[in-house]
Fold each of these.
Amino acid sequence: MNVKEWHEYSEEEILQANIEKYQRDDIVKFYADYEEPRYAYIEYEIILAAVLKALREKLGRPVRAVDMCGGAGKAAFVIKSIQPDSEVTLVDLSDKMLEIARQRAAKLGLKDLNIVAADAFSFLQQDVEFDLFVYSSALHHFKDPVNLLRLSADRMSPKGLITVIAEPSSLIGSRRFRFFRFLAASSDYKVRAIKECFQQKFKGKPAGEEIDIAEYHYTGIDDHQLCRDLVSVGLHPLMHLRYPTGGELKTIKIMPYLGLCWAFGTILCLSPDDYRANVEPMKQYIKKQLPFRIRFY
């Protein structure tokens, strides 16, 4: 049971909670066995293709990319599939999750994927430089995402980009999102949700006991405020979008009409002038390729 106020947890305590969570056998088994529905998280392929194309044009050489806090390496594998000659590093704090990545890399015949076991802060203290930092569904595991991205920018090449993808916005805390997620969920999820609700309401089980410290921003991130805060530390959003993600395509397509573009993505740079001519083509490509409605800001 949580004994502290939520804001009293330190970044170090949240990090430790993540280490413990992603070494658990049930969590690791889920990622090892999970088969994503077609089009689930298709934004990885589309957004990263647009980003890699722009970077390659600016750099005139293979892109050095890092999938930060990447778990089993979803973003890393997508990058290699788009630009096989790119230099890709996968960083995560869980040896068990990285072992899944190693097995998948072996099946795909990828011998040049650099896999590093480290937490984000330790890795960013090293003398490294990358053209592309990717944080996929990772920021909500940190107390201070702005500081994390600022530290990443210190290890980024001058024309480099940071891509934030598949992060939950504060919309996930809304009643309509929770209701729709319940309706669209599998029968197993519904049974589990009803059971937890029953335990909390009728058995006196404290509601706070179910809160997962590893998922620090468990009610989502205020993405617009995040963008404003990033500008104040010298990181500029080239593009910011909201969209639905995960699950079957028919479910994803319905969400925008219910006001449920609940995930967000952001592409950040140090100097907007470097990419000003690339922004509109990138937006048009992403809008055309994604099979559901999105919103740019």
Amino acid sequence: MNSNQAQRILVAGSINMDLVCRVPRLAAVGETLRGEQFQTVPGGKGANQAVAAARLGADVSLLGAVGTDAFGTTQIDGLAQAGVDTQGVFRVPDVASGVAMIFVLPKGENSITFIQGANAGLTDAWMQSIWNKDAEYQWMLLQTELPLSVNRKLIRSAVSHGVPVLLDAGGQPNLLTPEDLEGVSVFSPNESELDAIVGHSCTDEDSAIRAAQGLLQYGVEAVALKRGAQGALWVDRDRVIKEPAFTVDPVDTTACGDAWTSGLAVALMHEMTIPYALKFANAAGALAALAEGAQPAMPYLEDVLDMMECKELL
């Protein structure tokens, strides 16, 4: 681990309140279905990943927006309690905070619908202000729940400041085009998100590798592919690295991808080897499946190291 300078990640992304319904199955069109449990849980991919990175030991700043409603206040308070720097969180007047409606099935699978709300309210001036602060960032972590026009501006800003970008495809992968990858250092989709961006199925390993290799022509340095129970793949111009998954019995998979990507960001920040980084990310993602909700399920560094049977970061 490089201890010569403060290690800080800038997470830019969505901040939502998750409205979580546990259901026996998804309702058909026109059907009324009785659910089993309801919770409000702080979420949003940006906020989730900021909390996860903080719990994994990074200093984290979050750039995002909430409304001036009660959900917004709850979010900011919770993020601060988790150790996230919230100076970059903008409060948009007269706009509701973002929400996500999450239906969780008995085996932990989920279906999610989200409403951007205040997440779409980031101004150019506010986005630029994050670079005027004293902190120096080792990585910027993005997702696709923000408007893609905002993401493009953020990527250009990061590149101009010499900060590498890790882009998680989660959020609106169907709107993402290969051109949106320009300036991205590491692109991290899951299999369905990879399908969406390349326009065809990539369910087997060989087709997934070929699809990832095809994305490198758009300037991405590497593709880090989340494959769930099949583990993870790292594809760059020189190599393909495979890392098996940890076996767990999932309780709720809502934010496993967020934990995984934050784990990878922390690993890259610490300049871990790629095989070790993938193993670290796999452990973080697996642990997130063992608890309900989004931010509450984000794992701590000690638990990740225990799963990896390591005493400290390598």
Amino acid sequence: MPSPTVKVNAETYAKLKEAVAETGEPMIVVLAKAVEAYRRRAFLDGVNADFTALRNDRRAWTEEQSERAAWDATLADDVQGD
């Protein structure tokens, strides 16, 4: 099965080669790790933006705080998990 080709600019390719030289890992591994790190960062940036929006909505943030307080009360109920 043929592998897809990905085009990158010269600067990106140089950085990729540098990372390969530093780690000793194959280029495909370095690239896969970079894409995964980017994907995770984008997810966390989205979560942070969502929480910022929530905090900026006073009513929604108050509801969130109330819900957290209700769940925190369960920490003191002495019920042991499995």
Amino acid sequence: MDRRRFIKVVGFCSLFVHGWLRELLAAQGPMVSVAQGANHAETTRRAIAALGGMQRFVKPGQTVVVKPNIGWDRAPEYAATSNPIVVRTVVEECLKSGAKKVKVFDRTCNDPRRCYRNSGIEAALKGMPNVEVKHLEEERYRKVFLNGRALKECELYGEALSADVYINLPVAKHHSLSGLTLGMKNVMGIMGGNRGSIHKHINQALADVNAVFKSHLTIIDATRILTAHGPQGGSLADVRVLNKIIASTDIVAADAYATTLFGLKPSDIAVTRTAYRRGLGEMNLEKMRIVHA
């Protein structure tokens, strides 16, 4: 075989192999990385690295919103709010990837000053350059047309809408109404107006919002989980220490995997089930690429 023909054959084979690999990976579904370890900063970094590192999501000069759960006036050990060490580590990784600004905020249920302080998140981020830990301001909400099944429109926080990258960072916990609160429900922290009004049709309402407002990366804090009396908790007897971090670009897949930590199936949670049926992500564990980092 002459050299020119040999090069053509090699090129064709290379294209075939690469195409086959792409199809194989696509067939395997979304990747969910799961890392475990008592060093929560290192565990968080491993979970992110397994997805390709934060540089895959954050580019130099970009503005990033990291949205943890800061909704309750609880100390970190009660698992009602996101682990401050995990939050700080995610922010550090964003800055290392060249983020121009990282904004951290949540619409709280209890007094915001007490929530920010007692969650430990405000102190964990204090003094970090190019990081803003913000209380939400009413005038910054913007009306967004969803044309959804439950919500035709809603108010979402403008700084979340305008960010180049939105990182969803919920804590995994029990919820008295929806069963669990994970990534899909954490979006309520950027919703304005009367959020309580969506509870009568919460599954469709959350699907409506998440269908339009997309999280670029979902990182679920399962370093300790609240197993009962959520979302506020208040008893250490309801807390289990798991030392796990779950990360995925597919918010439904991340939620689905996190559901198993509570001894449940993804289909047991109506929010997850509704999002899957509406094509917002993968719910079936056997169709995911679960990587233990």
